[in-house]
Amino acid sequence: MKKIAVLTSGGDAPGMNACIRAVVRSGIYDGMEVYGVKRGYYGLVNNDMEKMEMGSVSDIIQRGGTILYTARCPEFKTEEGMAVAIANLKARGIEGLIVIGGDGSFRGARDITVRCGIPTIGIPGTIDNDLKYTDFTLGFDTACNTVVNLINNIRDTMTSHERVSVVEVMGRNCGDLALYAGVAGGAEAIIVPEVETTPEEVCERVRRSRMRGKRSNIIVLAEGVKGGFDPYAEKLETELHLSVRTTVIGHIQRGGAPSMADRVLASRLGYYAVELLQKGKAGRVVGTVDGKIVDFDILEAIAMTRPIDMSLFRLAEILAM
Ligand code: ADP
Ligand code: F6P
Fold this sequence. Notes:
Layout: E1 3-8, H1 16-29, E2 33-37, H2 41-45, E3 49-52, H3 79-91, E4 96-101, H4 103-116, E5 120-124, H5 140-161, E6 164-169, H6 176-184, E7 189-191, H7 199-211, E8 217-222, H8 230-240, E9 244-248, H9 260-278, E10 284-289, E11 292-297, H10 298-303, H11 310-319
Parallel strand pairs: 1-2, 1-4, 4-5, 5-10, 6-8, 6-9, 7-8
Antiparallel strand pairs: 2-3, 10-11
Helix pairs in contact: 1-9, 5-6, 6-11, 7-8
The chain binds adenosine-5'-diphosphate and 6-O-phosphono-beta-D-fructofuranose (F6P).
Adenosine-5'-diphosphate (ADP) binds next to α4.
């Protein structure tokens, strides 16, 4: 294989740049030409890509976001859009494509391989950790650390005013970001879409903690929880007469310098994806299982399920009793 391309698609995630760097440099090391596609599938449909050199990816391993930009491209999902994207890849002689993104982006990659035979490899890039075939997605570790640091800040002011804070974090329908950040941030309660938690239960936890002398409380809530934070905040105010503040962390948690873990994961996955293309593999995704690098068929990987880590969830409850 002599010419490959790489793109980032869907929501950006810290570690995407480190991964682009790994793909570009591994490809060049193997004697390939590597093209960077701008704005995900939008760049395929609009033929917006350029050849990358070793120097094109200098000084980016430490940067959040993606130098290739990212987008959501509905046009690519149409028959015409897909045909144009494939024609553009073929016209440039691209023989393999690496897609860094989430499950939607992976479906697009598979469609390309099925329709025209160009091999594609997916690399999991999302802060949500909602791709169940892999231990962790790129960006998840960094986002958790960012949220934990913000919880520390919130804790300072909550303690000073003896308040309760309900902190909403991202994750779409997946509670992993709330769970891990909540455990690491010492939250008194963690509310995730996967586990039903009533406002009464949260109130009871906070009441108990106040009785043993706690002056502030942090409740971490995943954005995918139906009804949001209002039922919890209202109950705490009316039942316990506490001063409650809500914070939606928002996009602050998606940016920032990637952690060591995300940089190393990005480097390993980027290199491995290029290796798979070299070996003639197609329609695969890469990830880790128990820390080891693995690859799976795209559709099989997307269909995999994994319940939320209930042992970690219970541990959080025990430690915050
Ligand atoms: P993510 O990759 O993070 O799940 P999206 O679901 O928004 O993000 O998908 C990113 C892009 O991937 C979409 O804008 C679209 O161009 C492409 N895509 C998503 N779903 C499909 C699909 N079922 N078939 C083909 N392409 C898709
Ligand atoms: O998938 C990543 C993510 O940050 C989700 O956690 C969140 O729900 C969504 O993207 C936000 O999307 P946007 O940046 O388009 O508002």
